[in-house]
Amino acid sequence: MSKLEAVLFDLDGVIVDTAKHHYRAWKELANELGFDFTEEDNERLKGVSRVESLNILLEIGQVEKTEKEKEELAARKNQRYVEAISTMDESEILPGVIDFLQELKNENVPFALGSASKNAPAILKHIKLFDAFDAIVDGNSIAKAKPDPEVFLQGADKLGANYENCVVFEDAQSGIEAGKAAGMYVVGVGSADVLKGADDYITHMTEMNVERIRRK
Ligand code: BG6
Ligand code: MG
Predict the structure, then answer these.
(1) Same domain, 43 and 126
(2) CA gap 141, 82 in Å, rounded
(3) Closest ligand 1 atom to Cα of 175
(4) Pick from 3, 62, 102, 150: CA 20 to 30 A from residue 183's CA?
(5) What is the pTM of this model?
(6) Ligand 1 in contact with 174 (CB < 6 A)?
(7) Catalytic position from the list 12, 99, 134, 138
(8) Backbone CA torsion sign across 52, 135, 133, 100
(9) Which CATH number belongs to the domain containing residue 112 in this structure?
């Protein structure tokens, strides 16, 4: 990529390992409803909004609930999740993230958050990265969840960047599809066997630097 204008980061599973807290909270809910929920099932929930995640969970358990019951279940899951993340601190930032953000700052490449989570601002505050981002787009400001590109398009717009010169970092299949639908260069954080369709793959942010992107 000859002209790198901006970088867009997913939060859960890219900046910080909150995926394990989401998984635990959903699993507890599934168990209470009388069925099991595996890590493989959990892959389908990554990047997906809270409401849509619950729908997938109920479909896996073949359980039917009214809209009112669903509201209560989603709130119960979120309460547990919020409790789990309340003790998070900067030690939970994933390896290589701080160095890469610093490199972007040194190179004057702006970066934004593009997350489906309504808890994103709270998490960023816990890990002391709230002020590091040039823009934040999260589950509170988008109407259409990933794989819709809205979250990344909004992020690029806030940074005044051309979509084709933006890079997205994503650990979820729905997020990779959202980044590609936005016309952006997408780096999958995870295995190419699980995540399909990204332009590049890394297992940790430690493998990433500005030079690697510019060479593409
Ligand atoms: C995404 C996570 O970032 O946010 C999903 O990958 C989660 O697992 C979604 O469901 C919504 O999060 P929240 O915090 O608004 O329930
Ligand atoms: Mg994620």
Answers:
(1) no
(2) 19
(3) 6
(4) 102
(5) 0.94
(6) no
(7) 12
(8) positive
(9) 3.40.50.1000
